[in-house]
Structure formats: structure tokens, C-alpha cells
Amino acid sequence: MxxxxxxxxxxxxxxxxxxxxxxxxxxxxxxxHAEGALHIPMSEFVARYGELAERAPDGGKVYVLCRVGxxxxxxxxxxIQQGIDAVNVDGGMQAWEAAGRPxxxxxxxxxxxV
Length: 114
Fold this sequence. Notes:
Strand order of the largest sheet: 1-5-4-2-3
Radius of gyration: 13 Å
Number of strands: 5
Structural class: alpha/beta
Largest sheet: 5 strands, parallel
Helix content: 25-40%
Distance between the termini: 25 Å
Strand content: 15-25%
């Protein structure tokens, strides 16, 4: 796949108001994620698309995260094809953690990106 025209943003450009969609698998999410993000694993994404449709801000952007940016690029491309204003987060959760952004585990404690 070619993602040359895919809208992309660096982690440092995101604010606490931005809507985050994490498409990593359950074990990755449980180990550590961005607080407030919606979690729908890429492997279940098409079947669970309605959850995103319910939660995403009307007319707003959806910032898609995975571990480093590959899976999120695929999901962002799919969302754009569905008419959603989706943006891939460059570097994913690894960049999020490296930028000093908070990472929480499934219990709400400090987490780690796996």
C-alpha cells in the first residue's frame, strides 16, 4: 500500500482535546495506552466500526494510533475512504511515550508501550 498522500501528524502537535483511536491489539492496549483513547483493535475494526461512528466527534478529526504507525496508516486510509477526517499519528505509541506523554495500563496505573 502507498500512504504518500495520507494526512499525518506528529505526537507533539496533539492536544488533550483531540480524539484518539488506538488500533493495537488487546495485549498492547492493556500494557499501556493514551488515556481517553478509544480502543478498537485493527483485527476487529470493520466489525466494530459502529463504535467509532458513535464516539467520534461530528465533523472532527480522528487521530489514529498504533505502535509505530503502520497499522494506524491502514485504518486511517480506510476511514478516509468512509468519509471520516482521519489522520495517522506518526511514530504511534512509541513516539507518544518518547515525547513524555502519559501512558496508562488497563488498571489506570503508569503503563508501558509493548
